[in-house]
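1st attempt posting a full record on here, be nice pls
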Amino acid sequence: MKLTGLLNRSRPELPGVAGTARVDRRTEALLRRIKAGEVAVLDQVDLDRGTAEALVAAGVAGVVNASPSISGRFPTLGPEVLLEAGIPLVDGVGAETLHAIKDGSRVRLLDGAVYLGEKQVGEGVEQTADSVADALVEAKAGLSHQLEAFAANTIEFMRRERSLLLDGMGVPEVDVELSGRQVLVVAAGYDHVADLAKLKHFIREYRPVLVGVGAGADALLAAGHRPALIVGDPGEVSMEALTCGADVVVPAFADGHAPGLHRVQDLGTGAVTFPSSANPEDLALLLAAHHGASMVVTVGLSASMAEFLDRGRSGSNASTFLTRLQLGGALVDGRVIAALYRSRVSLGAILLMIGAAIVAIVAALLVSDAGDAVGVWFSQLLAGVVDSVRSWFG
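the predicted structure (as tokens):
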């Protein structure tokens, strides 16, 4: 046999799910780099739903987690999202596997094992619908401890930042007029793209001040809206959003250090800092509250206890309860607004009514001596009605 024939003979495809590995302990950084068909290799205890949805949206081929995706502290929602999307999840492979896999290498997942070529470099648990369901049932037992931790962190936040909550001390001034205005705050949370799309009629009619929290600013741009205010780490926001003309507010530590501020300065745009231990979503709400917003509509923000706990960062949620208490009745979930704007009359019924009117008017014109001017006027009127119906139903 000729040597060239041996060299050109293709090797048989090895079983399992294969792809280029993207490795990063920082989940946020990994999500910015991951591409379709790649395998995400991360280290996150309790994989939350937001991270899982971002991985699904990126089109990953598989996920390898060095830590348990469901630790048992509380029912986390991320693994279920991945499995429903048909993405294999290999869980708890350990830090050694994370070190063994180099970023950009070709990895393969098979029956809970991780391979580099034909060499096994790690082994964990391949999650299934049954294993996730069983783990979630067991995790419910840890809810009481998480609630206690949530309450303790909330009390500590109140003691530490009482002046911010009660008097607005430390809330920065912004050029955007918020007093007496309706404000729409958009964060990259659960189903935020779909919820934002449902608010297009509300945005068009009331012209609220648009505030993007982190990647929520890019969601606004993608939906055809320009944010007036951006709150969050500039590292989580695209260059297009940061340079769109919006005021930028960067969260800062108590000592004034603001991670990511240099990115805004490098782009030649201005920014103000907001020293606080509150998370960016709550900082945006506090900005609206202390600057006199009449109503604050939210999209993508945690709205239930399950969503708060699913984020897996009880410390960063310490400000959540008190912030919502500060806003009171001025705070409205965007899904409620979308439900109010849902048309009670179907498009079919409207078209049927228009059709009946057309038949009646045409019949009247045929049996009358009306001139051509009436026909022209009617055609223009009908075109206007049709355009209005199309505009309303988008």
